[in-house]
Design a protein that fits this description.
By secondary structure, this protein is α/β, with parallel strands linked by helices. The protein contains eleven helices and 16 strands. Helix 1 packs across helix 10, helix 7 packs across helix 9 and helix 10 packs antiparallel against helix 11.
C-alpha cells in the first residue's frame, strides 16, 4: 500500500497526573533550563486527578495526519503486554494502519508519566520500553520507499542506525527527486548528540522542526558556533539562519508562548500563538504543531503562512483537551480546513 504519510518514532501509554503543589523557579541564568518546577524534597505530594491516554511522537503525529484525511501508517514498536494491545487498538480506532508496527517479544511498551501543572504545562517522565528496539527492515523499508511523505519524531535506542535506514530511501534536498519528502522533529537526544552525528541527515530533510532549547543545543554543538554569546543564541532569527546553513530546506523553531518562526532561505515567517479559551494540557502539542505544518504544506501547495495558521489552530484545539491525541481538527476526504 502507498501511504500519504508514514510516521516514525515512539508510541506510548500515558498516565497524566494533575497537581497544584509545584513551585515555578526562574532559572534564566541557564540558557537551556530557564524555568524549573520544584517540589519539596521528601514530601508527599497531593494529586488532584489521574488521566489515562496514549502518546509517543509517531502515534501523536499519525493521529493528527489521519484526521486530515491522509492515508497514514505508524512505524513504531510495542511490547507483548496489555499496554501494547491498547496502543494498537487506539491506532486502529483512529484509522491508522498498524501493519508497520514492530512487536518486541519479552518487553513492555513505552510508558510516560506526565505531571501537569495548573497552567497546562507539563513535565514528562518517559520510559521508552519497546520503542528502544524499533526495527526498520524489509517490509518497513519497502513502505517507506513508496510513501509520499515521511514524518520522523523522536527516536531512542540505536537511533543513528534507524535514521540511516529511513534516510536511505531519500535523495538530498535540491536534487529534483520529490518523493518521499521528510519532515523531521528530532528529540533532545538527537540534538544533544551534536551536528556531526546528524549533518548528513539534515541535507535530506525538507522540514526540520525543533523548539528553541533544542535549536540552541544543536547550534552550540557546532565547532564554528560553540562560542556564541547568550544574546546571539536567544535571537531566534540567528538560530534559524545558522541551522538552515546545515542543509535542511525549511527550518521551523517553536518558541512556546512567543509563537513560531520559519525560514526557507528567502524569508523569515512569524506566527503568534492562538490564545486558547481553555488551557488544560500541553502534552503532545509539539507533535501536533509539527505534523500539522507538514500536512498544511501538502494541503496548501507549499504555502507556509497558511500551513502555520493551521498549525496554530490545531495546537490551540489540542491544548484545550486532556491527553496528546484528543480535540484535534478534522477534515473529511480532500476537504481542506478553513484557516
Amino acid at each position: 500500500m502507498k501511504y500519504d504519510f508514514i510516521t516514525v518514532g515512539g508510541a506510548t501509554r500515558d498516565i497524566s497526573f494533575f497537581t497544584d503543589q509545584g513551585v515555578l523557579i526562574d532559572n534564566r541564568r541557564d540558557v537551556l533550563r530557564q524555568e524549573l518546577l520544584a517540589f519539596e524534597y521528601g514530601a508527599k505530594i497531593k494529586v488532584d486527578k489521574f488521566y489515562y491516554s496514549f502518546g509517543g511522537g509517531a502515534a501523536n503525529s499519525a493521529v493528527c495526519l489521519a484526521n486530515f484525511g491522509f492515508r497514514t501508517a505508524c512505524l513504531a514498536a510495542i511490547g507483548t503486554d496489555e499496554g501494547g494491545r491498547l496502543i494498537v487498538a487506539n491506532l486502529k480506532n483512529r484509522n491508522i494502519d498498524t501493519r508497520l508496527l514492530s512487536v518486541i517479544k519479552g518487553t513492555e511498551s513505552g510508558t510516560s508519566f506526565i505531571l501537569v501543572a495548573p497552567t497546562g504545562e507539563r513535565v514528562i517522565f518517559g520510559s521508552r520500553g519497546a520503542n528502544r528496539s524499533l526495527t526498520i527492515d524489509g517490509p518497513q523499508l519497502k513502505a517507506l520507499r513508496a510513501a509520499r511523505n515521511i514524518h520522523i519524531a523522536s527516536l531512542s535506542g540505536d537511533w543513528e542506525n534507524k535514521l540511516k535506514k529511513v534516510f536511505s530511501v531519500c535523495a538530498s534536498v535540491g536534487t529534483g527527486q520529490s518523493r518521499p519528502q521528510i519532515s523531521w522533529n528530532p528529540g533532545t537526544t538527537q540534538c544533544r548528540a551534536g551536528l556531526k552525528k546528524i549533518a548528513a541527515f539534515l541535507k535530506k530533510t525538507t522540514i526540520f522542526a525543533l523548539n528553541k532549547d533544542e535549536a540552541i543545543e544543536l547550534v552550540l554543538s557546532s565547532a564554528e558556533h560553540r562560542r556564541l554569546g547568550r544574546a546571539v543564541l536567544n535571537d531566534t532569527d540567528n538560530l534559524l539562519k545558522i541551522i538552515k546553513s546545515f542543509g535542511p530546506k525549511i527550518v521551523m523553531i517553536t518558541m512556546g508562548q512567543s509563537g513560531v518562526k520559519v525560514y526557507d532561505g528567502q524569508q523569515i515567517y512569524y506566527q503568534p500563538i492562538k490564545q486558547e479559551s481553555r488551557r488544560v494540557d500541553t502534552t503532545g502539542v509539539g507533535d501536533v504543531f509539527n505534523s500539522t505544518f507538514a500536512a498544511g504544506l501538502v494541503l496548501f501547495d507549499g504555502d507556509i503562512n497558511r500551513a502555520l495558521r493551521l498549525s496554530v489552530r490545531n495546537a490551540a484545539a489540542k491544548v484545550a483537551h486532556l491527553g496528546a491525541q484528543d480535540g484535534l481538527l478534522k477534515t473529511v476526504g480532500k476537504k481542506r480546513p478553513k484557516n
